[in-house]
DNA sequence: GTGGTCTAGACCACG
DNA sequence: GTGGTCTAGACCACG
């Protein structure tokens, strides 16, 4: 499983794992019903503790993106496109919201903000 | 000094203080050369530990927005409009950047992102 | 043999099998002396491991509801109506007991509890 | 803090702790805003691991009964009587439900069930 | 093999 | 002092 962990401590390891798996689900790399690696296998692969991988899976379970069956393993929840789209937009709003609120506090106009958004959008590697 | 602290723990208190002072500088409420309250005075006023206000001022010093002179007090750094504008845009980019990167990962087009930005911009209280 | 297994993990599979066979005995679908399917046959039918069906039968043997005769098979124990009635009430008490104990801890009166029981009884599909 | 732990393994320790604190909240022994012991203090007192007490507190946080503030401690959530009553009845239904469903499967009438409930209610120590 | 739970330490940020 | 996170082991139930 392709997951990159940064030990620089800016974000808990379990959160880094969770968010990357989440994105794999969002992008269809992991699909409904797909089995995730066992918490122990993934722990070995990433060289972290079992508790850390378990914690990551717990986060995703809270969001109903995966489902753990004791003794069986962990699987991507069956979900339709609508559910995923909702999840994605919700997540995006949570991140864009504070930034835009701040832009307004700073006194930027809508035009200035969208211009900045466009610049950043184009800057980033496609 | 007008600073509102949320004890709900979603953000460290020192960071809340720092960001609010920063915004007062950005918005001209605090201007070049203005004296800030002493860390002890501010601590009393906000009913927090002196360590907390000290930490907040340290953050702002790192960003060169304020300057502490031993035995005299703490003052807003002399800065021109260009410097402040740069700071503001830099800060905004740091927040918008990850959100926009994510929007692209999710597969949203520039049009969809700007539409979402506009919606959020209009939603927020002016 | 009519047994429905839920893979959702809320209850061990062996327990699901055991309880459903138990209910078939209680309700007379399985009667004294009736032969149960062999653990291997049942395992195939339900698509579970032989270990699982064996474990289920062991549970029922502990309760003296079935009896395994080496080389012959497994049979519903000879029992009279009194024995079965006792078993049923005993089982029910085990489940109702903790709930009612809790109701008292919470401070509900007998009237309130029986009212709640009546509501739930009527709610459930007959 | 008065909490009794059974090591017999029928229920995880963290769940035992959580349920007993929950009952103290329900019964007014712990009231809105009251501080709970720190996870480390409680761990020492109960002679369990810190992770176990933390896990217990996490369970209660999921149910919005307590609130943890990093660096401050853990507190009983401000809640009104209506909220608590709802919680209590909800919990009770979850326990009574399966038992009553079973009673019906066994073929008991509402009268028989309520009679049994009454017997158990009176049997238990007041 | 799978998860579930637990221990007894550790280091960190915040205050 | 407070939580938050993590490790490197362990034993268990289920299958």
Quick take:
4 copies of one chain form a homotetramer. In chain A, 60% of the residues lie in helices and 8% in strands.
Task: Describe, in plain words, how this protein is organized in 3D.
The structure is a homotetramer of 126-residue chains. The first copy, chain A, is mainly alpha-helical. Chain A has two domains: 64 residues, Winged helix-like DNA-binding domain superfamily/Winged helix DNA-binding domain (Arc Repressor Mutant, subunit A, Orthogonal Bundle), CATH 1.10.10; 43 residues. Helix content of chain A is 60%, strand content 8%. Chain A has five helices and three strands, in the order αβααββαα. A three-stranded antiparallel sheet of chain A has the order 1-3-2. In chain A, β2 and β3 form a beta hairpin. In chain A, α1 crosses α3. The longest helix of chain A is centred in the C-terminal third of the chain and has 26 residues. The radius of gyration of chain A is 18 Å and the shape is elongated. In chain A, 21% of the residues are buried. The mean pLDDT of chain A is 89. Chains in contact: A-B, A-C, B-D, C-D. Chain A binds a DNA duplex (15 and 15 nucleotides) through α3. Chains A, B, C, D: InterPro entries: Tscrpt_reg_HTH_GntR, WH-like_DNA-bd_sf, WH_DNA-bd_sf. Chains A, B, C, D: One of its GO terms (molecular function) is DNA-binding transcription factor activity. Chains A, B, C, D: Keywords: DNA-binding, Transcription, Transcription regulation.
